[in-house]
Design goal:
The two termini are 28 Å apart. This protein is of the alpha/beta class. Helix 11 links the parallel strand 11 and strand 12. The protein is globular, with a radius of gyration of 21 Å. It contains 15 helices and 12 strands. Helix 7 packs across helix 8. The structure holds nicotinamide-adenine-dinucleotide. The site of nicotinamide-adenine-dinucleotide has 20 residues, from helix 8 and strand 7.
Length: 425
């Protein structure tokens, strides 16, 4: 199976499904996972395709296609976001659902994995049209979802408002308000404190652990961050407050660099006022591709997938790669980074702070009792520190690099749950 997947990777390096399958095969083989279990874990548990008729503002009716895939409910309700994008495919949703299973297992929260998507272009739709799509999509998948079954969250082009509409539609059908059916809601509707910062905070926590392990000091660590959005912006703000030296921020239109460290709050203000990070007084502008390759202690890609590939991996000069984004490194690039001794904190660990605080949101909604921000942050820290320790111990014990270790740990946990439950027949 590994040989088959590896051959495909050569010609399909940037296909996330192929990358995920290749990593699964590698981890399953190392783990000596039973062949039957491998079959179960490779396949989604349930896949639903819906066709959603929606009235557009101009009076026409359009039919949109949506998906919800539950990869696994072995360890608890399925968990995963819903994305709205013109290029959503069932294959992509499948891969992302499996990814969620592994991520929840790595941080040991009692969820399985799911993902959803609707093929549409939100930039061409009004708020009223988006609301009608969201509500009809929710109505079509209503038997699938629920606090005990499958708990959606925001993803690409969906947000707190989308979650509020899903929660309301679900609650209207159930004839009672049920806030725990989705996470990523507005605070006023049962959202959790600390959720917007959670992914960036998680990145900072695991980076601190990695620095400690390599005997480096945060105060002298030079950090390069790609993406100044939710994950990258929050990570930059929190890391800079914690004393890291953020020397470079990379955005889609270029990068800014200051060897002494950037003033992140001032850079955020500059971007708000001018629409770009470029031209910032406290830094010099730089080419974005060159910036990715600069010598640094921590490189934190937090923009998009397939940033580090076989084309540039050999020229990455970071001590630590903390994957804030999902899938920023290809399967081929993994080998090159490992050969060059780069300490990789894989995405399914590094950016799991987001789903961890989503879990906290679900717990708070079910309890009807809300935590303060300090409680959220300290529980997040505990989970991220323990998960980091679990992954690196696994890596040491099995003599593999961190990504394979994270997959092995996840497969082991999900496989054990399935074994203990047995097959219902
Ligand atoms: P976002 O849209 O808030 O931010 C992304 C930023 O990256 C934007 O500022 C964008 O301009 C920039 N960007 C886009 N293309 C770029 C390029 N080619 N080079 C440099 N910068 C570029 O998105 P986000 O929520 O921060 O998510 C970023 C990544 O993190 C995605 O891969 C996402 O799946 C992953 N992730 C996010 C969360 C979360 O809680 N938001 C959780 C887990 C994983």
């Amino acid at each position: 199976m590994i040989a088959e997947a590896t051959t495909s990777v050569v010609s399909n390096e940037t296909n996330p499904w192929i990358s995920a399958a290749a990593r699964f095969d590698e981890a399953a083989a190392r783990l000596g996972l039973d062949e039957g279990l491998q079959k179960v874990l490779r396949t989604s548990a349930k896949e639903l395709t819906v066709h959603i008729p929606v009235l557009l503002d101009d009076g026409r009716i359009e039919v949109f296609t949506g998906y919800r895939v539950q990869h696994s409910i072995a360890r608890g309700p399925a968990k995963g976001g819903i994305r709205f994008a013109p290029d959503v495919t069932l294959d992509e949703v499948r891969a992302l659902a499996a990814w969620m299973t592994w991520k929840c297992a790595v941080v040991n929260i009692p969820f399985g994995g799911a993902k959803g998507g609707v093929i549409c272009d939100p930039s061409l739709l009004s708020m009223a049209e988006l609301e009608r799509i969201t509500r009809r999509y929710t109505a079509e998948i209503i038997e699938f979802i629920g606090p005990e079954r499958d708990v959606p969250a925001p993803d690409m082009n969906t947000n707190e408002q989308t979650m509020a509409w899903i929660m309301d539609t679900y609650s209207m059908h159930m004839r009672h308000t049920d806030t725990a059916v989705v996470t990523g809601k507005p605070l006023e509707l049962g959202g959790s404190r600390g959720r917007p910062e959670a992914t960036g905070r998680g990145c900072m926590i695991v980076t601190l652990q990695a620095l400690r392990r390599l005997g480096l000091e945060p105060g002298s660590a030079r950090v390069v961050i790609q993406g100044f959005g939710n994950v990258g912006g929050m990570a930059a703000r929190l890391m800079s407050r914690a004393g890291f030296r953020i020397v470079c921020i990379i955005e889609y239109d270029g990068a800014v660099y200051n060897a002494a460290g950037l003033d992140i709050e001032a850079l955020m203000k500059h971007r708000r006022e001018t629409g770009s990070i470029l031209g910032f007084e406290g830094a010099e502008d730089m080419d974005k591709d060159e910036a990715l390759l600069m010598e640094c202690d921590v490189l934190l890609p937090a923009a998009k997938e397939n940033v580090i590939t076989s084309a540039n991996a050999a020229r990455i000069r970071a001590r630590i790669l903390c994957e804030g984004a999902n899938g920023p490194t290809t399967f081929e690039a993994d080998r090159i980074l490992a050969a060059n001794g780069i300490f990789v904190i894989p995405d399914i660990l590094a950016n799991a702070g987001g789903v961890t605080v989503s879990y906290f949101e679900w717990v708070q909604d079910r309890q009807g009792y809300f935590w303060n921000e300090q409680q959220v942050n300290s529980r997040l820290e505990e989970i991220m520190v323990n998960s980091f320790r679990d992954v690196v111990s696994y890596a040491d014990k099995h003599n593999v690099h961190n990504r394979t270790a994270a997959y092995m740990l996840a497969l082991d946990r999900v496989g054990t749950a399935i074994r203990l439950r047995g097959l219902y027949a």
